[in-house]
Prior knowledge:
The protein is α+β, with helices and mostly antiparallel strands. It is 31% helix and 35% strand. The chain is elongated and about 70 Å long.
Amino acid sequence: MAKxxxxxxxxxxxxxxxxxSALSYILWDNSLKRADYTFDGYEIDGAxxxxxxxxxxxxxxxxxxxxxxxxxxxxxxxxxxxxxxFPNREYLxxxxxxxxxxxxxxxxxL
Length: 110
């Protein structure tokens, strides 16, 4: 009987830890800013960004993404990360599970 009680206790603790972890992730994900889709790109914090295609290699060169998440799209598909060389967020990296692209802010810097 004591063995059965230990198994039930371990299972209950495991379920509790899993539920707390899932709830924490959901709350964190919901706290992120959201980017809106526009006709030719994204709107992030009032600034419009557009995809650069293959031109990013000429303008940006080698870059390193930071772990700083700027925001996600409204559908949650794309996540936008800062680039180390551009702390003013002139260029961002849009990343989803299987794809990444560099996007550029249109117009004057903020």
